[in-house]
Structures are given as structure tokens and as C-alpha cells.
Amino acid sequence: MADTGEYQETSLPRLADWPLSQLDAIRPDVLKEAVRLLRERLEKEQDPINSFQATI
Amino acid sequence: MPAAARSASLDLAPVMHRLALADFDVFADDAGTLIGLRQLCAAELSKHILLMHEVLVNAADKHPASYARLELADAFQLLVRAQERNPDAVAQILSLPGVGAWAVDCLPRLDSADTGDPALKADLAELTAIAAAAGIRAGLDFALLIPVRNGRLILPGFTPLDTPLSCEYALLRHSEAGLALHCDGSMHRLPAQPPGRTRLLVKQAGLTLDVHFDISDPYLTRHLHHPMADLDKEATAGWIERFGGAWRILADRHPADAVAIAAVLDTVVPLTTDRATIVSMTSTATFGAIAASLPPDDLTLAETLVHECQHLKLCALLDLFPMVADDGAGRYYAPWRDDPRPVRGLLQGAYAFFGVTRFWRRQRYYGRADQVLRGHVEFARRRNETLAVTSALLEAGELTGTGTRFVSRMHARLRDWRRDRVPEDARRMAAEVSTDHAATWRLRHVSCDPAASGAAG
Fold it and tell me: What is the tens place of the pLDDT at every residue in B282-304?
């Protein structure tokens, strides 16, 4: 697969690599926007459970 | 954290998650690249940390009395210390599906509940259980007030420990000397190294599946219904045997899907069901977990794992990239469900059955004659149904540009697979099953226009 160098960008800060002790040092607007987008996604999810049932 | 206690913002801006377009596309074309899968897992950990931080900030601002009484600042400091000692251990705990479910439940309650609400108190106190689990894994000495649920100490990532204590909260002390709970003047000793969750480790063809069973995490099981009340030795043995067989099928014949499953699946919640029904599910809130009843054979479990891990991958992708614009009122036919589905549900089903189609496309050449026939029928049926659903999704006009790109690639792949040869008898059986479901669905959900039917009569 050819790497075109193009990326899909997101608004989710990479906190997986960030020290927990430094969370409050992050620009509040960055965190607020990421939380807003995630909560919006969760609220729009009309059916958050993906369930499959079959009779055998 | 209370505003006064927070360190001043230094206005630092972390790097944002991003995904190479080439890796994004492989999720739509196939099972995903290893780099892409690792990116999704890292993004879900970031999401859990972000939401946990939001819980702390909101708790401190909106419910300062509970924040202080439950010693949440101490809990967070324990997490900080644990990360400094053993970052991998903390990442493992914070990545748990139950931690995601907890944050998703807790945030709206912080907005709506009164400070005295016992459900809010229980939700907030869970953070101390998360911190204690991380502290134990990191090998720290600590003392923390944590919840005791009906005499049980339930720490994320560990098997619950029963105690004779009747208090709601107890002081948990952990040190080299061991683990002990203190409440109401009494002390109860616990194993110094509490047992982890029941673990299943299977290896085949150089691929390892490392998952855990969990029927105890209160937040995980709230999202994934009807877990078994008790996973005894016999039930565990049944699952282990079935997983062994399913993993042999996947690792030997479906390595790309096996790699994806090994990367995203952490937890299995065994469900109870009657013998005539098989059930499986995932939730947007619980990345890394699937719930399922014990399938009747290894092949069905292999198919179920592919199906449910497709959902897990799509849930994580949707956390990063909106693929559906605001849902319209449109409801659509889904060949795998009896109810009309909104576009979001239709997209989830299409992606799950795209994976199922890929599975049967390969699997139909292996096994006994009846298994080969089953494979051909399943492949033909799901290929045609998923192709029709991806067409419906593209025509619905409710996808974003990213969603259109994703579904178009699935659609193109399914169209290519239409050229694959299917024996005539299998093709006929697949068509009969699809037609039967569609006709039954139409009888249930499509109403006649009385004026039109009157004119016809």
C-alpha cells in the first residue's frame, strides 16, 4: 500500500502519551472542544448498543 | 479539580490524533493495518483520559462537597504516582472498557443530579476504585477511601473480592505487607496480589489472542445486558474450548481479521440465553469489549468475533471522524434486523456484515460438505444484502464526506465480489432466505396507501 503522506486529522488530543500530572497545563479550549465533540457524538447515537440475535 | 487546586494552565497544546489516509482506507477495504489498529487503541485511551479529566473538573466545580468527601483529589494523585512508577500498568487500567463506560455514564449525571444523589456518589466513587487498581498494579504504597458494593471489593481489572464488611466505603491500604480494608474499627485482610480477571490466552500460527472474561464490572455490564450471574469452572472451560477452536480457524485462514481481533479485543462478557438463541453485542461506550452467549460451534464463534470486532473498529473510527451528518427522519431496511434502522445503525450493520461477508468468502472452501454449503450460502446472502445496504447508505444523502468515502470503498469491494462464483444451489438458498426476510419485513413495516389500493381494486 502506498503511503500518500495524506492524513485524516482529528480534534482529539493525544493524551495517551501525555503525563497525567500535566493535564491541567493543556490549553482549556483544546480539551473543551474535544469533550464537546465526543459528547455530541454520544448524544446523537440513538442506539448505542449494536446487538445481533439469531435463532439456531 | 477545584480551580484553586489546579495548576495554572501553561497553554500547552498536545499533538492531535490523526490517521494516515492509507490506513483509514484499509479499514474500509479490509480488516485494517496494524498501524491503524494501534492508532485506534491509542485514541480510545486518550478518550478515556479526556473524559476522566472532564469528570474530575466537573465534580470539583459542580459538586465540591462530594469531590472533597470522596477524596477524588487523592485518587487522582494516586493515578499520577502510579503512572510515574509504571506507565504501562496505568495505561492498561485506563484502557479498560469499563472505564470508558463509567465516564460515559458519569458525565451526564454530573450535569443533572443533585449533590446528594446516591447514584452520583457511586459514580464518582468509582474513580477511587480505578485509582486503587492502578496503584496496586504499579506496586505503590497507598491508603484510599474506596466503595464496597454489597460486601464486595470490585476493582477494575481484578476479580472481585468478597469481604464480611457491611460498610459502603472502606479505607484500602496497600503496601509490601499486603492489602487490607478498614472500616468501622474492623480490618479485613485481602490477598497481597489480588487475582486478575479470568484470562484466556490462545496461540495459533504465530498469532496470540489474549482476552479476559468479565461479568463483574458494574459499568461494563450496565451497557452489555444479561451477563452470566456466575462464570463457574464448567462454563469457563466451555468458553476456553470454543475460543481455542475459533482462534485456530481465524489465525490459519483469516490472518488479517485475527490480527484486528487480537489488537482491539480485551474483554468478553459471557451472556445468558436460552439454548435456541445466540446473542452478541457491543456498545459505543465500551471499546474493547464484546458480550456474547456461547455459540454452538467454533465456526459461529469465529464469525461472531469478526462481526463484533467490526463494530468495535467502527465505534473507534466514529469517535475520530464523523461519518453521519445530523440524522434525518429516514428509516431503512436492514436485512439483518427486524426493525427499521436510522442511518447510524444501518452503517454499523453494513460494516459488521461487510466483515462477515469477507469471512465467508474465504471460509466457504474449508470443512465438511455441509460447512462448505453453509459458507457459500452465507457469502452469497451477506454479499448481496450488504451491497444493497451500502447503495442505500450512499443514496440516503446523510453521510459526511468521510462517511461517503468509507462506504464507497466498501461498496466497490462488495461489487468486485459479485464476480465470485457461487454454486447454483447455494445461490438459490441465499436468495430465498433474503427474499423471505425482506417480504416479512415489508408486511410488518410498510403500510398500504388506502387510496391507491382502492383505486386498484
Answer: 999 999 999 999 999 999 999 99
B280/B297 Cα distance (integer angstroms):
14
B58 CB neighbour count, 10 Å cutoff:
18
Please tell me the distance from the alpha carbon of residue A41 to that of residue B288, in angstroms, as a whole number: 18
Predicted ipTM?
Answer: 0.94
The residue behind cell 459479485 is: B418
Q: Would you say B356 and B417 are in contact if contact means Cβ atoms under 8 Å apart? A: no
Distance from the B293 Cα atom to the nearest Cα atom in chain A, whole angstroms: 10
CB proximity list for B48: less than 8 A, separation 6 or greater: B94, B95, B99, B100, B103
pTM: 0.94
Find, in chain B, the residue whose alpha carbon is nearest to that of A53.
B279
By Cβ distance, the residue of A39, A46, A47 closest to B107 is A39
- The CA distance from B272 to B292, in Å, is 8
Q: In this prediction, what percent of chain B has a pLDDT beyond 90?
A: 82
Other CB atoms within 10 Å distance of the CB of residue B22 = 17
Residue whose C-alpha cell reads 461517503 in the numeric block: B404
DSSP at A50: E
Per the CB < 8 Å rule, is B21 touching A34? no
Structure confidence by residue, pLDDT tens digits, B95-107: 999 999 999 999 9
Q: What is the mean pLDDT of chain B?
A: 93
- Distance (Å, whole) CA B386 – CA B404: 15
Task: Say yes or no for a CB contact (<8 Å) between B84 and A21.
Answer: yes
DSSP per residue over B213-259, as a string?
Answer: E-S--HHHHHHS--B-S---HHHHHHHHHHHHHHHHHHHHH-HHHHH
Positive or negative, the CA dihedral B367, B373, B378, B384 is positive
DSSP of B393-412, one letter per residue? HHHHT-B-HHHHHHHHHHHH
What residues in B contact A5, CB-CB < 8 Å? 20
Q: How many contacts does A have with B, using Cβ atoms within 8 A?
A: 182
| pLDDT category of residue B450 using cuts at 50, 70 and 90 | low
